[in-house]
Amino acid sequence: MKFRTALAALATACALASPVAAQDLLRIRLNADIRSTDPGVNRDGNTDGIHWHIVEGLVALRDDATVAPMLAERVDVSPDGLTYTFPLRAGIRFHNGQPLTAGDVAFAMQRYMRREVNWRCRADLDSAVTRLVAVETPDDRTVAMRLEKPSALFLTILARPDCGQAGIWHRDSLNADGSWRAPIGTGPFRLGEWRRGQFVELTRFADYAALPGEPTGLVGNKAPLVERVRFTIIPDEAAARAALLAGNIDILPDARSRDLPELRARPGFTVHSSPSMDLQAVLMQTRDPLLQDVRMRRAIALALDVPELVRAVSEGGSRPSRSPIPPASGFNTPAMLDVPARDLAQARRLAQEAGYRGQKLRIITTRRWEAFYEIAVVVQDMLKEAGIESELEVLEWATQLDRYSRGDYQMMAFGFSARLDPSLSYEMFTGPKATQPRKAWDNPAVQALLDQTMAETDANRRRATFEAMHARLLEEVPIIALYSSTTNGVTPRHVQGYRSWAVDAPRAWGVRISR
Amino acid sequence: MSLLEVAGLRIAAGARDIVRDLSFSVAEGETLALVGESGSGKSATARAVIGLLPPGLRHAGGRIALAGQDLSALPPATLRALRGPGMGMVFQEPMTSLNPAQRIGAQMAEGLALHTTLDAAARKRACIAMLERVGITDPERRLLAYPHEFSGGMRQRIMLASVMLLRPRLLIADEPTTALDTLTQAEVLALMKELAREQGSSILLITHDLGLVSRHADRALVMQSGQAVEEGPAAPLLAAPRHAYTRALVAALPRRGPARVIPPAPPLIEARSLSVAYPGRGGWFRRAAPMPAVQSVSLSIHPGEVVALVGGSGSGKTTLGRAMLRLLPASGGSLLFGGQDVTARSGPALLDFRLACQIVFQDPYSSLDPRMRVRDIVAEPLRLPAGMAPADRLARAEAMLAEVGLAGLGDRFPHALSGGQRQRVAIARALVRNPAFVVADEAVSALDATVRQQVIALLRDQQRKRGFACLFVTHDLGVVEEIADRVVVMQHGRIVEEGPRDQVLDAPAHDYTRALLAASVRLQG
Amino acid sequence: MALYVLKRLLAAIPTLLLVAASVFFLMRLIPGDPALLILGDAATPESVADLRAAMGLDRSLPVQFGLWLSQVAAGDLGLSITSGEAVGPLILDRFGVTAAIVLAAVAIAALVAVPAGMLAAWRQGSWGDIAAVSLATLLLSIPSFWLGLILLLVFGLKLGWVPVVGYVTFAEDAWAALGYIALPVATLALVEIGVLIRMARASTIEVLRLDYIAHARAKGVPEHRVLLRHAFPNAFAPTLTLLGLVLGNLLGGIAVIETVFTLPGLGRLLVEAIFARDYPVIQGVMLFIALVYVGVNLVVDLLYPVFDPRVAAS
Amino acid sequence: MKRLRLNLVIGGTLMGAVLALAVLALAWTPYDPVRTNLRRRLRPPSAEYWLGTDEFGRDVASRLMAGAVTSLGVAAATVLVALAIGIAIGLASGFLRGWVDRVLGAVNDTLLAFPGILLALGLLAVIGPSRSGIVLALGLAYAPTVARVVRGSVLSIREREFVEASRALGNSEGYTLLRHVLPHTAAPVIVLATSLFGWVILSESALSFLGLGVPPPAATWGNMLASARPFMAEAPLLSIAPGALIAMCLLGVNLLGDALRDLLDPRDGA
User: B327–D161: do the CB atoms touch at under 8 Å?
Assistant: First the structure.
């Protein structure tokens, strides 16, 4: 079959690309270069994915996005919920051989909290909901942090990958002038060579103090099983796939969903699918003269055949869900999973009542993220069947993001990156438009509920509140949640122990090469 | 036995023959002139002889033999070996006949390298000698110069040098001096003859100028539209032309007209120590010094008189002509029209001056807007002064066209007219508004002899009839004889001599004038 | 000579300033905020404000422009606000890729097209001529990036002769590097060949009409020499100007080709910088491109007299 | 002469074909060119879908036809814009000379120093990607080229004697410019316009390729080509078909351009 030969060809192609191919080298595809080596500061998804191999925080996420101790032995929360005490695990060393002390933790935390450092999550730890007021070191092995008032989010913030897991690094990671040099962490791998635009290479940390048990999320047993890990930068999808098939990379962490059928069919390759915790959705501007009428918004929602849409866009890889809380989350409940059926007649009637007279709705989308674009195209198509006219406004990503943050849109196909706490899953689109125009859902009552969930630490009570909010969301439809995308990692036979997970960047620990 | 034998030559452009059944011969050391007007096929004949017909023309029949060798039968290599030593060619246009990208030394030596066994040093010596011979000063250094560093006359000398260097047995000279001004013309031709005599070369001289023929040719062959109409020894042929066409040609030679007496009157237009300078080319930063072209010239022209302004190229005569019409700004002095100073006038204030003055340019090809019909061209001047109905304008235009002998050609576009007809259109345009003053800038220089004769006649008649004053800018003293009342001679931007025609022509006071007269060729009876 | 060059460079300053200013303010007109792009959908007004401050984007535009200019005057193009790399080296690095490809392509194109065009002109109207002209016109009509895609499809995917993605510098591995630039170079070369053949042919035809060619022949100069010594230099002068133009445009404008072949070139750097609103990079690249443009033209003007002594540079 | 006629015939036929396609598309296409059907993505050519379907299950043949309309329309409009601006500038700087010429020249150089695509990129980002946006952006991007050509021919024409003659007649500068200079710039401008037409079609596709072309779902050959790129291996026809059409159209334009050039060549004119 021609196509096979084609790929074989590409294979040889990429053989040229990466001459090195040894037993002890694990090669992982990276779709774009990383921003920096400074955890949680100058970052993006790719960058976090590299950092979590190098640095670790006091706590980290499990596969289901719940929080577990990492550098900390355990976490003791005072009855008033204001003081968190982290006894440090014994025998942990930095890459430079220095033992981990409470002082190191305090030093790192203080840098994070300094404004000029621009730590991604400084604001989160200095907000009305969660305010960190002190980091103390009662003794060399213990760290205590105090909050202004109880917060359900505090530990999650410390664990969030996009916060660099509040990673703890040795003070020699900084230059004399306090600027960032390179990470000296406690993680299973140390930073090897970073050749901009080509690859980032990590080397095994021999003295890594692994936790017992199985690896889960960013905790558990993270023992490094290969000498070196090279993240090879291959922007082009087709090329990446070919590189995998040619054996020039050992892990393709993010295969295109439309390639899956073909890859599944192929012997000697394994596809690791895992629902991620992001959210693909359609936003509606509730201040728009036409869309401010809830009936119009309902009409639009009813006009969409969500399962069909999701099936089409994700090639059947993801399950439709009208809840912003991802199915993979421990907080997702059966009630959130059932998807209201499409009803064109009803949609037409509601639109009528709302005074819709065939005006063209404008749906903003971009080609930067194919999913956004495909969603928009399909939505336009399905609305048409309900007699609702619309046109696409395909913008460059930067422009769409700008319009989003200014709330300057009528409808928009949009995706939210993974939020690892259900409260955040709502917070990301709920809030007062006056102060935060990007927020889609401006409803004081709902805001109140949301604040509750943030202060409430009991899981079950939180679930109840979220179900209530979900019901309201379906009534008021400020956004139409569609699905959480699926991460599809693909590995050849000789790679063992790899697993995709909720956050789409790969994890190299626990992975073994056996030929 | 004769060096060149041409028998039954036929040259075709596509299906059309431009030379038909032409036969002639050139004897050793003889100079044969091919005479004819443009389109007679004389140049094509010359090119055919050396086997370099331009693309589109082909040698369609007949025999060309050099020293008994049929050239058309020769393989290319052998033919090439003949070019240079066998026959050399001097072209008309000195500006394009030397390779601008090559030092003249290289260009001259090239032929020697190809056709002789001389070594580089010897070649260089030969070139220097030859340059010296054609009168190039400091030849050693000049060898390294590029063509653009020489004047037209100089280039033609160099051209001649590089051809004669190979001692060709036959020298083909295609209108060798037409592009040069009178003075240089004479010098170059004389030089050519000398060299040919020294080397015993024969010359095939292609020209439209009977004067040259009478002065330089042993025999002449008159061609008309591709055919020989008359052949014979030059002098008798010109003295007693048998064929009608030849007679026409001879008749077209300038004859001096009767002297007129112009009734005294205050000058119509008057230049007072007028100077014109061309601005130097400026950049963002520097601005080059202006180059003076006319230097404080005073000249007054009276109503109804025809003043000839003569001089070699670069004498500033054209510039002065333009300046007298305010087509060029004066850099000094003043211009008076009807006693009023118009030097500084512009816009509407200038209009009445413009209405009263007109110009006829040298080149009828570029002086008529190719995208306008002849009628509209002639009608255009009547837009001003406003007030004339379009219909009337066109009527006037038609009438004017009829007057200049172009009745019924109003619908044509310029490119559909012959050179002479175009010049008539230009004249019609100039006169349709009955100007008081007309500048004729080399108005007939671009025309063939017979046509030139007719156009001059037209101009003269119109002038007599309408009585406008006329400044006739020309390098051709023949024309002066025909119509000038007064002659003004310019050199280096200054007037060197001025006076009634006969006085200036018969008793020139200034050397430059004498030189001009000596150079301007007339029939030698 | 040196003085002339200096003058020319000085004369270019207004243009460069105009470019700098227009780029600077044009980019600021464009919606989209680098800080927002870096922080993504989770950005809060506060975090954006902080980041903007850190990037120095909170100052007023004129101030920013002034600062940037003085910086540039000091020879420092600043740091990329997305990657933190120094813009100067970054540009040179990427330019290396682009230059390698463009120069190779134009060189090849010239070497093929100029002789071809001249021969076509020499035998004007012959079948060879018609073939050459038709080929040129055809090449001229093929979208470069499409041609690239097709070549990629055939030689990369189907035949597998050359790699489809990636790039290594010649320094690293000359042989591999050759493999990587083969297709892009071929693509560009083919397109330019189309342009150049036509140009070379046209100007040669003009030259062959002139008397000095006849003069050379009349001296018995053999044809090959007529073409080489007499026709070529004069016919090449105008082609040279065009070459300069082509070069200037390509050096700045092969973003599309670089995208097709995923090459880390200047064009892609620019486009990506635009998408990322990486102002320092955009400004730097644009200024650099303008400078290259000026430089190329200068070189052409310096070379011109070699072929046409009538135009002496200084 | 032979080649001229050949150019005219072939060029005419090609362009004629493309135009016919566009005209037909206005009246009829096999399927709705923007109607997606996600159940039949990337279908190979068949009796049902002559050229198969694209990644949204849209009928490629229909999109090619619709694309002809958009591509040609955009190109034509852009050329008009470029000509309007370019001619105005060119006339002004060529005829008035002096400081006007200096200033306009400097601006022109600046614009020419921009890669046209980039200029368009910038302008587009400001104007927002829309048909009119692209027309305006590309129009502005190409205006300098027009200006340069016009200026060039004006400079040469103004030296011709019939312009001087017109002055000698007392005609105003303006009249002379319009009556005697402007008409003569027509020939070069027409020739340029044909090449422009080609370049614009190219640039539009290039812009689409960089994600800034005529916004989808409206079909242009450019954005079809662009969105086909990821499926080059699976569905090569998706890339080949629109590219081939562009090439065909350009070939037609170029040949016509040559024919025009020969027709309007002053050497044959006089």
Answer: no
Distance CA B462, CA C170 (A): 81
B and A adjacent (3 or more CB pairs under 8 angstroms): no
pTM for the model: 0.80
| Strand order, beta sheet including B486-491 | B357-360, B437-441, B469-474, B306-310, B486-491, B494-500
Q: Residue A18: pLDDT above 70? A: no
How many angstroms separate the CA atoms of C157 and B12, rounded? 58
Residue D107 is assigned to a structural domain of this protein? yes
Q: Which CATH architecture has domain A23-273+489-513?
A: 3-Layer(aba) Sandwich (3.40)
Domain carrying residue D164: 2-30+51-269
Is the CB of D162 less than 8 angstroms away from the CB of B368? Answer: yes
Is some CB atom of chain C closer than 8 A to the CB atom of B111?
A: yes
CATH of region B2-251, choose from 3.40.1190.10, 3.40.80.10, 3.40.50.300, 3.40.50.150? 3.40.50.300
User: What mean pLDDT, rounded, does chain A reach?
Assistant: 89
For domain A279-484, which architecture applies? Answer: Roll (3.10)
By C-alpha distance, the chain B residue nearest C122 is B55
pLDDT of residue A143: 96
Nearest chain B CA: its distance from C222 CA (Å): 7
What pLDDT is stored for residue A310 in this prediction? 93
Task: Kindly list the distances between the CA atom of residue C187 and the CA atoms of C198, C239, C253, D240, in Å, as whole numbers in the listed order.
Answer: 18, 21, 14, 16
Whether A23-273+489-513 and A279-484 share one fold: the answer is no
pLDDT value of residue A215: 93
Which of these, C230, C237, C238, C289, lies nearest to C102 by C-alpha position? Answer: C289
What is the number of domains present in chain D?
Answer: 1
Q: List, for residues C172-181, the tens digit of each pLDDT value.
A: 667 777 777 8
Q: Is the pLDDT of residue B525 over 60?
A: no
Give the number of other Cβ atoms within 10 Å of residue D178's Cβ: 12
CB-defined contacts B:C, below 8 A: 88
- Rounded to two decimals, the ipTM of the complex is 0.77
DSSP character at residue C41: G
CATH number at residue D241: 1.10.3720.10
Please state whether at least 3 CB pairs lie below 8 Å between chains A and D. yes
> Is position D227 within any domain?
yes
Residue D108 backbone dihedrals phi, psi, to 5 degrees: -55, -50
- How high is the pLDDT of residue A11? 41
Considering only CB atoms, C153 lies closest to which of D202, D232, D253, namely D232
Are the C-beta atoms of B256 and B481 separated by less than 8 Å?
yes
pLDDT at A306 over 90: yes
A vs D: CB pairs below 8 A:
44
Contact by Cβ (8 Å): D68, D24: no
Question: Is D37 part of a structural domain of the chain?
Answer: no
Cβ separation C219–B110 shorter than 8 A: yes
- Judging contacts by C-beta atoms under 8 Å, the chain C residues touching residue A404 are 41
Q: Under CATH, which number does the domain B269-276+293-366+435-519 receive?
A: 3.40.50.300
Residue with the larger pLDDT of the pair B199 and C1: B199
Does the beta-carbon distance from C143 to D240 stay under 8 Å?
Answer: no
pLDDT of residue D113: 66
Helices (H) and strands (E) in chain C, counts: 14, 0
The reply to whether D176 falls in a domain is yes
Domain boundaries defined on chain A: 23-273+489-513, 279-484
Chain A residues whose CB is inside 8 A of the C45 CB are: 435-436
Q: Is the pLDDT of residue B115 over 60?
A: yes
Q: Do domains B2-251 and B269-276+293-366+435-519 have the same CATH topology?
A: yes
C142 contacts in chain D (CB < 8 Å): 243, 247, 250
- Domains of chain C in start order, with CATH, are 34-76 (no CATH), 87-281 (1.10.3720.10)
How many angstroms separate the CA of residue D216 from the nearest CA in chain B? 47
The reply to whether residue A3 touches residue D234, judged by beta carbons under 8 angstroms, is yes
φ/ψ region of A271 (left if φ > 0, alpha if ψ in -120 to 50, else beta) reads beta
Q: Above pLDDT 90, what percent of chain B? A: 42
